[in-house]
Amino acid sequence: MIDYLEQLPASTTRHDAHAQGDSSEDAPPAKRPKTSHQGDYVIVSRQTLSLTRPCVAIRAEGHRPLTRRNIGERVTIKLSAENSLTILSRQKFRRRALRVSFSLDQDQLSEALVLSLEVFKKNPTDTSTPGAFWTTVDIRLEYQDKLAVLHLDFEVRWTVSTFVSQLVHSDSQCGLRSRILRNFFPDVYWRVAAEQGEALESRSPQDFYEAAFFSDPDSSPETADLQVPHLTSELYPFQRRAVQWLLGREGVRWTSNAVGDAPGVVPLSPTIETMPAHFIKTWDTDGTPCFISDLLGVVTKDFLPFTEQEAGHKGGILAEEMGLGKTLEIISLILLHRRPEQPPVIYDSYLGAQIRRTGATLIVTPPSLKHQWAAELDRHAPQLRVMVYPGIGKRVQDPASELALVEELAAQDVVITTYHELKTELHFALDPPTRAIRSERKHHRPKSPLVQLSWWRVCLDEAQEVESGVSNTATFARIIPRVNAWGVTGTPVKDGVQGNTPRPPSKPFRRDSSHADRQQQTCGASSRFSATNPMRRSLGSGNTSQGRTRMCSRLSSIAYRSVTPNGLSGTSSLCRPRNATL
């Protein structure tokens, strides 16, 4: 083993070997480079394992102490169940084969060291991937009299993130991150565990009654006086708080003296410099400050990118039990927050094209509920212009009728459609594939009017209908242009917390030029539907009622409000302080 280590370069990374002009026979072929990029990272842990073996004196005198850094590309290190540590050369360097084993005592194997070895075993190819865990290994060889002392230095690193990627919500990553937080960031781990434990405490029916029908001492005094113009019904106190929360998720708030001492909505003051409530400040092994969000599953050295991204996300999930007035709260939101005046045609950055603007709210509902929505709107807000979307097949025969239908929809206050219509019109919503044709198309190919308008608000009623994220319905919902996006559901968790969960229409966190890449990014609360489900595997385990509570503290960057008889307060949301009572 000593001979093998002496023949290795001081640093065995390909980048360093190339810089040193390493032209040995073990160097990888130039035509197949696999450079390991390193992004910015925080140092999670440093662990050292020292192994002592006899060495004849004449051999010790003829060798100098040596250090070899980043040997992970040359050797692999395995720990067996019998506490045997094996170091062996990788196959591509087999001309200088190495295989040596050491029997370790139990006291040499701390949990932190075992975890460092597990991270090393799973080292990613590209360590610059945001949220990646990886371990570097350095070897130091020293001689003491007739002993050779081998030091293995393990350094666990965590790549910092400026956005949320799919990687951080995989099953393996969630489990690994939980163990790393427990071992190396106990302040973060136990703080999150304590808060989740408090959220899972049992509540009595009296707690629900007080939360629903009595004023919240933490809410603004103005909320108790909230008035909705042209609403024919009176809101309960918890519904007023819900409407104020809905307004806040769209970037405004209701006040009694908005303009000229008249009640109305005013924009919220930006608080970009304020650290998001789900981030916790801590320090890495070197004492460098960093910020960890167990909610998003990321570590960063600067939380401002996340604050800016969250400030731009409009919408969320309104999850309340049946009978508590979700429909009435959405109607109140429609009446209170109208779209500001803008040119009739605006640029949609997601589509990258000019599109017709409308101030209408598009409500997507199961077919059995569309007439109920129309009746509720007529009952509680008769002044609103409401239209039930008939579908492209019944109204569009030529370009003129298509344009007329678009203009008719744009003139409404509320448009109601169904998930069935989304499913059947998907092929009229997507652009046809580009291919060479011999002649021009003879017949007009209509395009769904639902994607020809920039909607002020899209509301998915019974949002669990699009839980799969890959169905035709979910695909259509993802591409509908909108400003504010809402998912409304009384069952945010189905089939236990290990099942799928509904996702609101969402834009990706990361702003990429690639349309395909953007669809693959983890969602924010107000954006397009993601084609993947990063949240479904991050909810933990437990029964459904526990899952609803845990969902409040685990959903990735999704604003969530829930009122349930089994304990969730009428004022809970991800926007509240971390110590807020659920």
Describe the structure.
The protein is of the alpha/beta class and 582 residues long. Among the domains are: 2-27 and 36-159, no CATH class; 165-202 and 277-313, no CATH class; 340-430 and 445-455, no CATH class. The chain has helices at residues 2-7, 14-19, 57-61, 111-121, 171-184, 186-199, 205-213, 221-224, 237-249, 304-311, 326-336, 370-380, 392-395, 399-410, 419-424, 426-429, 472-479, 515-520, 544-554; strands at residues 41-54, 66-68, 75-79, 84-89, 99-103, 133-144, 147-159, 252-259, 262-267, 279-283, 289-293, 298-300, 315-320, 345-348, 353-357, 361-365, 386-388, 414-418, 453-461, 482-489, 560-563. Strands 13, 14, 15, 16, 17, 18, 19, 20 and 21 form a nine-stranded mixed β-sheet that branches. Strands 1-7-6-2 form a four-stranded antiparallel β-sheet. A three-stranded antiparallel β-sheet has the order 3-4-5. α5 (171-184) crosses α6 (186-199). The termini are far apart.
